[in-house]
Specification:
- 56% of the residues lie in helices and 8% in strands.
- With 239 residues, it is α+β, with helices and mostly antiparallel strands.
- Strands 2-1-3-4 form a 4-stranded mixed sheet, covered by helices on one side.
Length: 239
């Protein structure tokens, strides 16, 4: 039975404009599991009200790390088999760093008045089913999320300082050639790609995008994964 991936829609040429959904898309492509990709705007029916999630053999699984663990176990995947305990610990640290970066990325799109108009225009242009009213409601909802998470209480420069610190650590972590742990990508590379691609291909010059552009190893890593996952023949169709 084919796996179904449910995640947010495309934007600026990437398969999902959310880092977590793009992470799972990339992981599925890297391991060669066939799947169909269903794009949603409304996450209310998803597990915990969050995207992405998958349906695999009648089982619904949410949360990107839980999805990867489920797929690895159920399908006997070997993408991370050669990793040492130290490398697995490093991957956990990177995953938590990306969790922090997520909030700054989202802030740059929905909250910062300098970039919101261009982001809104891109969504409306690429997804005509969206409306100004619907996006305004989504923005208000995100403002509430940001406030309770904490990033919404930051002034823009302070918010970006946090995100740039995350990117600086990532840039030092990723080697100048190959992938994170060698010549072949592992699951952490899919996670890094999910976020960096949503910065690198984002057609709006935020401080995050400018930083990524200044680090050739981040760009090279992103493009290497992008080439693999966007041209992989065993992946699934999008709808």
């Amino acid at each position: 039975m084919t796996i179904a991936l449910y995640s947010y829609p495309t934007l600026f040429g990437v398969a999902d404009n959310n880092g977590y959904g793009l992470k799972i898309f990339a992981f599925l492509r890297l391991v060669g599991l066939p799947f169909v990709h269903e794009h949603l705007f409304d996450a209310s029916g998803a597990p915990r009200g969050q995207l992405p999630y998958i349906v695999d053999g009648g089982e619904t699984v949410g949360d990107s790390e839980t999805i990867i663990a489920h797929l690895t176990r159920r399908h006997g995947l070997t993408i991370d088999r050669a990793l040492s305990e130290k490398q697995r610990a490093q991957n956990l640290l990177v995953t938590r760093l990306l969790d922090d970066l997520y909030w700054v990325m989202s802030y740059s799109r929905w909250k910062d008045d300098r970039y919101w108009p261009a982001f809104r225009a891109a969504l409306l242009r690429e997804h005509p089913s969206l409306t100004e009213e619907g996006l305004a409601k989504a923005r208000e909802f995100n403002f509430q999320r940001y406030f309770y998470q904490g990033i919404g209480r930051y002034e823009p420069d302070a918010a970006y300082e946090r995100g740039l610190a995350d990117l600086g650590v990532l840039a030092d972590f990723i080697p100048d050639g190959g992938f994170t742990h060698g010549a072949e990508p592992t699951s952490v590379d899919a996670g890094i790609y999910g976020f960096i691609a949503n910065i690198h291909f984002f057609d709006i010059d935020t401080p995050l995008k400018n930083f990524v552009a200044s680090r050739p190893n981040l760009v090279a890593h992103c493009l290497a994964i992008h080439e693999r996952v966007m041209h992989k023949q065993s992946g699934g169709a999008s709808r």
